[in-house]
């Protein structure tokens, strides 16, 4: 055989290109196994296709890819029963970097019926060379189906390769990698099985790994998302969901469809039935798995926007090359079209499921806080997401939507009123609601932190503006009080300037208001400024843009305010009382007094005076 050994130079700038493949094209060394498995699956698909017109090329009854680690010899062998390669094809496909036999073959199939075309994986022709990331020598022995002749291609990846006659009992290819000293982990059967499970679990050809002389299955071999829905059981869907989502619950929704047109892809997505431990914190990127012709590519393709990151599953396309880099992946218009189609499909599913209020409530309680982010950051889908939001209300039990709120608005009502805070229980008791309840006006209660932000971006829904009721310039005069007529208001002309002067460094203004019924005082935000909840959040985060200067509003019908107005008219000093009123308003609003110790002293003194 040594006399027949042929030496050849690589047919490209091998030094630069091999260095690119080994050190730059792939971010993880284990990718080499994905590439070689993809090539083997491609070869099997190609043989299966050619056998349609030449029965002599039919695959053997038990066609599988065998992976054989040999620690003693420090070799890793992949053996497949695919179409194989002739001497000329070995030189053509392995001797020339960046030349793809698969691509040439795919072009030759342009006129073949779609149903008969095998699902081919590689297109760039460089995946094979990733073997040199872990091997200092690679040998490929191959026999073309339909021939008796076998050849061995061998190279150390340094500018040349050799070709020599060989023997192989059956058609197919054996790839032997002589593993580098720093890559011995790839001789461990468990490690190999883990990699295959991660990257090639759903390649249709069975894959086995030899361990202690026994062949052990390494993949399921079924791309569930490519099967008709009628052939899949609920239990199979649930098992696959648990596999991709790494969870143990059942999915709340399963979306399985095939898209054809501007871009072709299959998708199998799941919306979980259980809230994760960290629904908001941590990674904000979509975890959807991108596959190309059944081969896993990445979980970092950002196939859904961050506000749909709770969706798990797989998207598998025919329209991307297997070896596409992350940079190319983000720039390709194909991925952009897939993203748009997948996002719209998830939104459509949510809209459909939202018609069942009880069922949708389960989803909302798990992931509503995440979905709200879409209103804040996604202008394209803002109105669609707004229609999916649900809220607690001051007027109805359970969850309600913006559309339902608008349907219940009073004829004279000009806005959708909201109140944001730290808990719905506290909000339901807030004095901010008194004037609205007295007029039969509904207020939506918002208790998530993001509720202080997104209303500003939405601005309006169904032509109705959103207004926080803590904004001090809301006019309720057009909405008459219901029930008993209210008492006549006291004249606060003597009182207001006294309190404003006493609190001049701590409030923006002191005003009379018709928004209160049972409470004496309330805080309001200045017109045009952030509402009270936003101010609190900014203050807690150390990002307040200035001192708290809310508006202190007084109820002119309250007995306490009436009495203070009388004392102001008599020339009483109300400086201490002014501070007590401000602290009282802060406490009612779920905030803390300016000086808790001083507040406690004032309350104690007031109680002592009352007791005396």
UniProtKB/TrEMBL annotation:
Signal peptide start-end: none
Keywords: ATP-binding, Chaperone, Cytoplasm, Nucleotide-binding, Stress response
Positions with a binding annotation for ATP: 35, 39, 80, 85, 100-101, 123-128, 173, 326
Region (C), start-end ranges: 537-612
One GO term describing the cellular component: cytoplasm
A GO molecular function held by the record: ATP binding
InterPro entries listed in its UniProt record: HATPase_C_sf (IPR036890), HSP90_C (IPR037196), Hsp90_fam (IPR001404), Hsp90_N (IPR020575), Ribosomal_Su5_D2-typ_SF (IPR020568)
Coiled-coil portions: none
Region annotated A, chain positions: 1-326
CDD domains xrefs: HATPase_Hsp90-like
Compartments it resides in: Cytoplasm
Similarity field: Belongs to the heat shock protein 90 family.
NCBIfam families: PRK05218.1 (NF003555)
Known function: Molecular chaperone. Has ATPase activity.
Complex and partners: Homodimer.
Protein name stated in the entry: Chaperone protein HtpG
Species in which this protein is naturally found: Teichococcus wenyumeiae
Taxonomic lineage of the native organism: Bacteria, Pseudomonadati, Pseudomonadota, Alphaproteobacteria, Acetobacterales
Gene: htpG
């Amino acid at each position: 055989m040594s006399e027949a050994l042929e030496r050849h130079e690589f047919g490209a700038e091998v030094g630069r290109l091999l260095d690119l493949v080994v050190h730059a094209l792939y971010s993880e060394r284990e990718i080499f196994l994905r590439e070689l498995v993809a090539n083997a699956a491609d070869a099997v698909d190609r043989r299966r296709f050619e056998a349609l017109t030449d029965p002599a090329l039919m695959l053997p009854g038990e066609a599988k890819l065998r992976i054989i680690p040999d620690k003693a010899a420090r070799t890793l062998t992949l053996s497949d029963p695919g179409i194989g390669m002739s001497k000329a094809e070995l030189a053509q496909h392995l001797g020339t970097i960046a030349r793809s036999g698969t691509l040439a073959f795919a072009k030759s199939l342009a006129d073949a019926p779609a149903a008969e075309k095998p699902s081919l994986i590689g297109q760039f022709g460089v995946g094979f060379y990733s073997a040199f990331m872990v091997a200092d020598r690679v040998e490929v022995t191959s026999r073309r189906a339909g021939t008796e002749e076998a050849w061995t291609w061998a190279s150390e990846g340094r500018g040349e390769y050799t070709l020599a006659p060989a023997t192989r009992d059956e058609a197919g290819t054996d790839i032997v990698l002589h593993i580098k000293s720093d890559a011995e982990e790839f001789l461990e059967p468990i490690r190999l099985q883990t990699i295959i499970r991660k990257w090639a679990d759903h390649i249709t050809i069975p894959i086995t790994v030899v361990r202690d002389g026994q062949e052990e299955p390494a993949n399921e071999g079924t791309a569930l998302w490519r099967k008709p829905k009628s052939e899949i059981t609920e239990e199979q869907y649930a098992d696959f969901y648990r596999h991709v989502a790494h969870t143990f619950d059942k999915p709340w929704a399963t979306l399985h469809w095939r898209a054809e047109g501007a871009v072709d892809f299959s998708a199998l997505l799941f919306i979980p039935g259980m809230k994760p431990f960290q629904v908001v914190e941590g990674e904000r990127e979509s975890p959807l798995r991108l596959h190309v012709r059944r081969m896993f590519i990445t979980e970092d393709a950002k196939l859904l926007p961050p506000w749909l990151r709770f969706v798990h599953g797989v998207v598998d396309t025919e329209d991307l090359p297997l070896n596409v880099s992350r940079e190319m992946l983000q720039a390709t218009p194909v991925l952009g079209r897939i993203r748009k189609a997948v996002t719209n499909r998830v939104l459509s599913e949510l809209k459909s499921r939202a018609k069942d209020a009880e069922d949708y409530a389960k989803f909302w309680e798990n992931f509503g806080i995440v979905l709200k982010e879409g209103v804040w950051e996604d202008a394209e889908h803002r109105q669609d997401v707004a229609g999916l939001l649900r809220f607690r209300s001051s007027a109805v039990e359970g969850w309600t939507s913006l559309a339902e709120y608008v349907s219940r608005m009073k004829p004279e009502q000009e806005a959708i009123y909201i109140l944001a805070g730290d808990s719905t229980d506290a909000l339901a008791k807030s004095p901010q609601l008194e004037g609205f309840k007295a007029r039969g006006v509904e207020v939506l209660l918002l208790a998530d932190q993001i509720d202080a932000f997104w209303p500003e971006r939405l601005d309006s829904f169904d032509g109705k503006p959103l207004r926080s009721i803590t904004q001090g310039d809301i006019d309720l005069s057009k909405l008459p009080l219901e029930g008993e007529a209210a008492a006549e208001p006291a004249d606060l002309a003597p009182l207001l300037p006294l309190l404003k002067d006493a609190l001049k460094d701590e409030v923006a203004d002191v005003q009379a208001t018709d928004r209160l019924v049972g409470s004496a005082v309330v805080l309001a935000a200045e017109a045009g400024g952030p509402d009270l909840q936003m101010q609190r959040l900014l203050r807690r985060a150390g990002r307040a843009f200035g001192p708290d200067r809310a508006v202190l509003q007084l109820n002119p019908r309250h007995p306490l305010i009436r009495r203070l107005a009388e004392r102001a008219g008599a020339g009483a000093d109300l400086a201490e009382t002014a501070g007590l009123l401000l602290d009282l308003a802060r406490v009612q609003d779920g905030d803390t007094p300016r000086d808790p110790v001083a507040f406690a002293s004032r309350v104690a003194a007031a109680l002592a005076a009352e007791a005396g």
